[in-house]
Structure formats: structure tokens, C-alpha cells
Design goal:
The chain is an alpha/beta fold and 333 residues long. It has a single domain (2-332), classed as Zn peptidases (Aminopeptidase, 3-Layer(aba) Sandwich), CATH 3.40.630. Helix content is 38%, strand content 17%. The protein contains 9 helices and 8 strands. The protein has helices at 2-18, 32-51, 61-77, 136-155, 184-194, 223-230, 246-257, 281-286, 317-332; strands at 83-91, 94-105, 112-118, 164-170, 199-206, 237-241, 264-268, 291-295. Strands 1-2-4-3-5-8-6-7 form an 8-stranded mixed sheet, with helices on both faces. The radius of gyration is 19 Å and the shape is globular.
Length: 333
């Protein structure tokens, strides 16, 4: 363990040395009306997912299907051609069918950027059994951001020369299926590998809606020296990946900053650093793909994580819209 800790500190030191402290974009490259529309759409999506009842956990397949249908219809309304990726397995002796929803933009024969987010929530007993877990930040925010990214890419008719984009909404990211082959992202990543599809990189949108300017609102796996580097306010978005993703993180950070007013910090760290591999990107690395996570840092700032209090009123839709704008620029280049 000692050698891994030393490795992490060396990587962190390199990240600090090369950290791009360029100020975020001062003025958004989008009209006020379009930015307002983006916020309105994000709120509409999050509201739909959080109002579903029973909550969209693995035991509620009817609710999961309603969420998947909404995602399918939203991608279709954006002008894309979505499709379901279904798979079956038995729960308590009964066969159940689960669905990812995916849609391509651009030439599918070109290397692709995969933009993914999970639409399920943790089982109710993990949070509050009486009320369930609405999952506004975890992860209605991520899948809603993915839907709006897809809309903006399609509406703007972004011209891609070197790559294509695949948008994917995953089922079964949460416990009890996390780190199992039943995860929707495992199914998708395995399928890409089986078909020998080239992936530029994958980015998981994992909780992108909770922000705070309060002092000491941001925590870290290692308080020292991370709080001294990144600050104690939860007012930024983070991109996180393993040591091999260092260059990808640099590129994503630079492109993001050119269009978003929101600060973005990067961290390249091994998996033993708490939380760095707690999302769907973990399955792509298993198959040798470069994969990173875009996140508001989850439980390290949001006390509503996996609780009945993870509600829509805790989401900052202006900052969430800035996340989407930054990622739009990443996908364009």
C-alpha cells in the first residue's frame, strides 16, 4: 500500500504542477434565450425522473422502463435515432429484462466518444424506506445532462471530422449490482469490445447538479494536500480518471474551459483513492478503453447522497447548464 500511496502523491504533484488555472470563460458563447431554454429543459428532465413512483431502483422494473421510454422519446425528439440495448437475468428465480438506451451521432465507423450516464437510483432500503430515493443529483442530473448534450449536438449540426459520438443511458449502476456484470455499462462496454469498436474515450456524467459557495462545503479523500490545492468550496466541477487518463483529462479540461463559466479541476489518481472509480467508467477501463468521470464529487460535498433528501430543490440548474456547455465544446473537438 505504501508504494501506491507514494505513486498517488507523485501523480497528484504532477497534476498540481500542470493544473490549468486559466480562468473559465467569462461570457458564454450562447444566447440568453438558448441558455434559459437549456436550464428549463434540464429542470423538466430532472423533474420527470424524480417524480417517478415507485422510485427507479432495480426492484422496480416498471418504473425503470418508464424512465427508459422517456429517454428514448427525448433522444428521438432531438432528431437522433435511439435504440434499446436489452439484456435478461434472473432475480429471485424470475427472468427480468433491463434496458440501456443509446443513440449515435456522426459516422459510426469512426472512433467514438461515448457519453454515458445511469438513470437508476439505489434501492430504497439504502436510503429511507418510507420515502424512497428520488435521486435528483444521483443521477437524474447526469442523464438529464446527457439528453441536453445530445440535443445541442444534433440541433447545432456539429461537424465531426475525426470521431463520432455515442450517447448512452445505463440501467443498474447502483447497488446491489455495482461492480457486477449486470451493470448496464458493463453490457455496453463488453459489446463495444466484442465488435472491435474503437473508442477515443468514454466520459461518465455522474452527479453534475449540486454546488455550494459555503466555506468547508467541499471534502476530499485526502484533506491534505487536496483542500489546499482545490479549495474548500463546492463551486467547481471535476474530471477524474486513472493514471493512464492523464492526457485525456488535460485535453478535456482545456476544451471545457473555453466555453463554460464554471471552474473545472482534474485529478488523475489510482483506484484506491476513494470514489475515483465509483461510476460507469470503471467498466470501460476493464476492457482497455480510456474512461473518465465528470462529477460534482458526489458524497464529498452532497450530504443528500443516497437519501430521500436528494430532491430537485437541491439542484443548481444554472451551473448544471454550464457543465453541459463545457462538455458540448469537448465533444466538438
Amino acid at each position: 500500500m505504501k508504494k501506491y500511496l507514494i505513486l498517488f502523491l507523485l501523480i497528484l504533484a504532477a497534476s498540481i504542477f500542470l493544473q490549468n488555472h486559466q480562468s473559465p470563460q467569462k461570457n458564454r458563447t450562447i444566447s440568453v434565450s438558448d441558455f434559459t431554454k437549456l436550464q428549463t429543459n434540464l429542470r423538466k428532465h430532472v423533474e420527470f425522473f424524480t417524480r417517478l413512483a415507485p422510485v427507479r431502483s432495480s426492484t422496480e422494473t416498471v418504473t425503470l422502463d418508464k424512465a427508459a421510454e422517456y429517454i428514448y422519446d427525448s433522444l428521438l425528439a432531438s432528431g437522433l435515432k435511439p435504440e434499446y440495448q436489452t439484456y435478461d437475468f434472473k432475480i429471485a428465480g424470475k427472468k427480468k429484462t433491463f434496458r440501456n438506451v443509446k443513440a449515435m451521432y456522426g459516422d459510426p465507423t469512426k472512433p467514438r466518444i461515448v457519453v454515458g450516464a445511469h438513470y437508476d437510483v439505489c434501492d430504497s432500503e439504502i436510503g429511507n424506506p418510507a420515502e424512497g430515493v428520488p435521486g435528483a443529483d444521483d443521477n437524474a442530473s447526469g442523464v438529464s445532462g446527457m439528453l441536453e448534450l445530445a440535443r445541442l449536438v444534433q440541433e447545432n449540426k456539429i461537424d465531426l471530422s475525426s470521431h463520432s459520438i455515442e450517447f448512452v443511458a445505463y440501467t443498474l449502476e447502483e447497488p446491489p449490482y455495482f461492480r457486477t456484470e449486470q451493470m448496464g455499462s458493463y453490457i455496453h462496454a463488453a459489446d463495444l469490445k466484442n465488435k472491435n469498436i474503437e473508442v477515443k474515450f468514454m466520459v461518465s456524467l455522474e452527479m453534475i447538479g449540486y454546488f455550494s459557495d459555503a466555506v468547508n462545503s467541499q471534502k476530499y479523500p485526502f484533506s491534505f494536500p487536496m483542500s489546499q490545492i482545490f479549495g474548500d468550496q463546492a463551486n467547481f466541477i471535476a474530471i477524474i480518471g486513472g493514471p493512464l487518463e492523464f492526457l485525456t483529462l488535460n485535453r478535456v479540461q482545456g476544451l471545457f474551459q473555453k466555453e463554460s463559466t464554471l471552474p473545472i479541476y482534474k485529478l488523475s489518481a489510482p483506484a484506491f483513492v476513494q470514489g475515483t472509480d465509483w461510476s460507469d467508467h470503471v467498466n470501460y477501463t476493464k476492457f482497455g478503453y480510456s474512461a473518465i468521470m465528470l462529477t460534482d464529487t458526489s458524497f464529498l460535498r452532497n450530504s443528500n447522497y443516497h437519501q430521500s433528501t436528494d430532491t430537485i430543490d437541491t439542484i443548481n440548474f444554472e451551473k448544471m447548464a454550464d457543465v453541459v456547455l463545457g462538455m458540448r465544446n469537448v465533444l466538438k473537438n
